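REQUEST ID: PR-0412
SUBMITTED BY: lab tech R.K.
PRIORITY: routine
TASK: structure prediction, single protein chain
INPUT:
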Amino acid sequence: MSQFLLLFLVFFPTVCAPVSYLIGRKSKGMRNYFVAVVTGLELAAAVLLMTSGEAAVRLDGVCGLGLGFAADGFRCLMTLIAAIGWFEATLMLREYFAHSRNRNRYYVFWLLTLTGTVGVFLSADLFTTFVFFEVMSFASWVMVIHTEKPDAIKAAETYLAVAVIGGLVTLMGIFLLYHLLGTLEINSLYHAASAVESNGALWVAGLLTLVGFAAKAGSFPLHIWLPTAHSAAPAPASAVLSGVIIKTGIFGILVLSTQVFRYDYNWGIVMLALGVITMVLGAVLAVFSIDLKRTLACSSVSQIGFILTGIAMQCLLGHHNAMAVDGTLLHIVNHASVKLILFPAAGVIYCTTHTFDLNKIRGFGKGKPLLMLVMGIPMASLAGVPGLNGYVSKTLLHESIVEYIHLVPQTAGLFTAVEWAFLFAGGLTAAYMLKLFICIFIQSPAEEAHWAGKKKYASKLSMGTLAGLVAVMPVMGLLPNKVMDGLAALGRGFMHGEAPAHAAEYFAWANLKGSLISLCIGVAVYLLIIRPFLTVRDCTGVSYPDRWPQKLDLETGLYRPLLCVILPFIGAFFARVAEGIVEGTVHLLSDLLYRGQTRNVCPPEDEEFAAYDAKPKSRVGFRYSFAYSIILMGIGLSLTLLYVLFKG
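STATUS: complete
OUTPUT:
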């Protein structure tokens, strides 16, 4: 039964994707119900798998090396989160897409992305992880470019570039790992890596493999795709992009950190550096943002930094990593739950206002108590307010840093700085969430707001779905030892964490103190920086100017010039040098062979041959479009895959 559930969860959405397209050609309403039923069945299967215990299944010969899937506590929990996210977002899509086009295409790739995501979470080896990681990356690209507006096209270009480059680098790393270790089975990586004599080669393979996973997770310096892609994608799609899909990158990083480099101090320092920079940078970007969805997207970058810090502490603490393991898993769960609520709630606002600009949506939530609760509770949770689930995971992550300071006092200076960076990033989280809450629910709307006075702003289905998810958060936060500790135990086997020696006292003063410090920092940042420097008061009220220096944008300031100007110039330079060498050699040989002769060999030229055309045609139309090229590439990849499948 468990083996069937594994295969069902992975391949059922793919089987249903073309069916949804055919149904949509006849009836859009029936297609919406069909996709909702498909994601509902996926959720039911994920719940059954949670109760079925560990399982494994292998499809030998498929894609050459075969595909392997496994179920344990961590994998089942991540699959359940994915299924919940997809089902919830599917219910929200119906209202969000009421007047949208390209819905039929969207739903096909919506289900294919679900297959890729679940395939990653249930993978038993890195080859299977990579195959479904790439399926997910390319299928989710359609969600980013869905509206086909200029900003969506630009965001999709960035998303695709990062996905392709990151995927190729990771594939190179996986090849090297397979060469060094002789296996890609996740459960066998640690023992195989322990036997490798060349630590340098192992690090090269590990760092190459890390690139694609870190890029998908949104880690610095490859986080550039995340704010733009989330801003361009439909809000329900942003919910799964932020809440679920970036966790596939975390899955890959966890495999490397808990298997290949388990308890490795140097690897832990690398992860810690990435984590600290990412959590602070993402929070700073969110503080400066004046767009609701972009703020939430930058927030996701920051929260990934918190998770990376937890992974780093697992490596550094070694066998004393209980709090780091539990904190890492719980923050994955908490961040997913928060973003699966806040992004769809942002979509609710968009459906009425048709914008995410804070200057145009300010005051939208005034007089809407249900929306205030639906958005306010997740905001407070992410800020680490005691009594909510976000406080629990942040407390464990913070205490893991404090524990390391006590265990290794000679590093107290460095790790005290890390602790304060952690508390400062938490304070910035509170600051930008306070900024959003005051903007949406406290400020008065602008006089020209066309939506002012409208009472109905969302369907009962949408608000009921969000309210149901929100209701769980206080239960998780107020009963952490009964609820959160049970969830944390699910990840200890996968991350090789030790069970805590005793139950954590979450509401002891020593633990509350860290949260209160962050909250005080957040209030101070809002009152001393955001209000005086990042807002402007005029006759219409408080507005939010864009103060972020564009020169600091990594994409436009570094990556696009590097990829579009500098590297092509270097390539063209060496190509010209090579061409000059070849032409010079040909001329030299020609002079030697035909010395003293005046005749030249001039073959007849056929203007109808190959690229030459007597009547040049305009290079416009579908055949010369990017979409046509993508279709041809897809057909080629499909034929290649079919050849590999049948040959295997």
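NOTES: The beta strands are 55-59, 67-71, 536-538, 541-543.
REVIEWED BY: pending
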